[in-house]
Design goal:
Order of helices and strands: HHEEHHHHHHHHHHHHHH
Subcellular location: Cell membrane; Membrane
Helix content: 55-70%
Number of strands: 2
Number of helices: 16
Strand content: under 5%
Structural class: mainly alpha
Mean pLDDT: 89
CATH architecture: Orthogonal Bundle
CATH class: Mainly Alpha
Organism: Paenibacillus phytohabitans
Protein name: ABC transporter permease subunit
Family: Belongs to the binding-protein-dependent transport system permease family.
Low-confidence stretches: none
CATH superfamily: MetI-like
Membrane topology: Multi-pass membrane protein
């Protein structure tokens, strides 16, 4: 109570964040009970029939389950393999730039896309890559004599999603790694330079080991989102021609819950995804600590 009284203004500043999580994160958890009920809007939440794990069984036995799992995991693993290391590489490159004005200009240019709505990003993609007058396709047509339907060809769906995520979020992600690099002791670089270490050796033996804990923490958090591809982005990029590779858990929950009104079934799908996410975070955190690294808790 003494500490509470002493730091009362800090807790007052903390209240908006606490209220946000209580209202939008914890209170809605009561809705997870829908996954175990046969919810009928006219009957009500409490009076709806309790069916246990029936919706989960139906979901696992659904032929679409393995297609959704494959599409979700492939897209997430490709993004993890390509989009996660990209901010680290850019941060290392920017750290080597000595011209302050040039460095700040590059940072500003790569940060700006993060603040652009995903709707705008997809709209720009359509304008650039459409076969009906898109600049990219017009250039390809001039060079090869044919056009590529980037927006409808299923083979191009995942590369387009990853490229959009790279352009939008890669620059902003470098902020964390640049902040971690700025905390590296400069005397280590000076000692390495005196010993004749090249810049590459300094990066490999000093910079990367110094920011390893930051990389691991962010990797653990990213692992927990393996089944979360983001509804808005996937939904905007999907169409009737690429549906086989575009359908993921997020769009499936929307289709079954909002479009078809299967509220209990879609809640079960969303709950399954959340449980797997928690399992992945706990497992990756355990493995990180097992190998002597710092985890998230």
């Amino acid at each position: 109570m003494k500490r509470l009284k002493r730091d009362k203004w800090l807790y007052v500043l903390l209240m908006p964040g606490i209220l946000y999580f209580l209202i939008f994160k914890y209170v809605p958890m009561w809705g997870a009970a829908l996954a175990f009920k046969n919810y009928q809007p006219f009957t009500g939440f409490w009076a709806s029939e309790w069916v246990g794990f029936e919706h989960f069984r139906n979901f696992f036995q659904n032929p679409d389950f393995f297609k959704l799992l494959r599409n979700t995991l492939l897209l997430s693993l490709y993004s993890l393999a390509i989009a996660f290391p990209a901010p680290i590489i850019i941060a290392l490159m920017l750290n080597e730039v000595r011209a302050s004005l040039y460095k700040r200009t590059i940072q500003t240019l790569i940060y700006i896309p993060h603040f652009i709505s995903m709707v705008i990003v997809v709209s720009l993609t359509y304008v650039l890559f459409t076969t009906q007058g898109g600049i990219i396709n017009e250039l390809i047509f001039q060079w090869t004599g044919q056009k590529i339907d980037f927006l409808a060809d299923p083979h191009w769906f995942r590369p387009m999603i990853i490229l959009q995520n790279l352009w939008k979020d890669c620059g902003f992600g470098t902020i964390i790694f640049l902040a971690a690099i700025s905390g590296v002791d400069l005397e280590q670089y000076e000692a390495a330079h005196m010993d004749g270490a090249s810049r590459w050796r300094q990066i490999w033996h000093i910079t990367l080991p110094s920011i390893r804990s930051t990389i691991i923490v962010l990797l653990i958090l990213r692992t927990g989102d393996l089944l979360d591809n983001g509804f808005e982005h996937i939904y905007l990029m999907s169409n009737a021609l690429n549906r086989d590779v575009a359908d993921v858990f997020d769009t499936y929950v929307y289709t079954m819950g909002i479009t078809m009104g299967a509220f209990s079934y879609s809640t079960a799908v969303g709950l399954f995804k959340s449980v797997i996410g928690i399992f992945l975070i706990v497992s990756s955190n355990y493995l990180a600590k097992k190998f002597g690294q710092s985890g998230i808790y």
